[in-house]
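We store sequence, tokenised fold; for instance:
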Amino acid sequence: MEKTCFCSVIFPNNLKYFRAFLKSLENQSDKDFTLLLFNDGVVNLESYLLNYKIEYKVVPVSGSIGEVRTIMLEYLKKSEFTNTVFGDTDDYFPENRVALNKVLLQNHHIIINDLCLVSDKEELIESRYWEGRVELKHQISLDSISDYNFLGLGNTAIRNTVLPENLFFDEKIIAVDWLLFTRILMNDVKVCFTSDTFIYYRQHENNTIGRKKITLEEFKKGFAVKLNHYIALAKENILFEKEARLYQESKLKVEKMTPEDINYNLKNKNPFWWEEIQI
């Protein structure tokens, strides 16, 4: 019998959003799942869960972003769960999030859910943010996420059998989800995108997408993320040696950049994660 978990990491900074997260899970049309919470530093977490009718399990974790995600993914790989629906604890979800992902996972290995952008106060900013992106209407492969990412540990669902053997993430890796799904897509997997369910993706200072312009500081941080991403992948697959070399050769140029040097001429008004970082 297949078992499904809803997997999330909770840490103190997200507690102010935790009630909306839990309420949206309590209201799921399909309640046959276990909330699997990886607790990174919240004291007496169970007290926050008392008033919600959700089956849950708490796993204590600590460490860097990469270390916590490594523990989480290794746990999933060895667990009794067949399917995992991922969600961030600062977001919340429509009633069909679990149900539709479970249905789609019957014929696919990975499901990508769209984003509905909302403000910090849960006011709708933009609905189904990626629905119009043609890249998601075609077959999704390793090449699809070579320059940017749209598969996150907040908007996807997977069959746990696709989790790779190599789950270690270097401490320099910030975009853990991008590296994980790149590794997964190196194999023959079926991927599906849907806008029929989505995540309410909260826009705050630590979690923003869809900006038309970014600051020089943000650009440089994003460049460092992509540089470390390609360096890590080049060690595993020769297909990424070209990107790693290009970004390494561009490092000095980016260090000397001014705000006027940033390329804002994006082809798409609703960019994917890291798509704004172009050199």
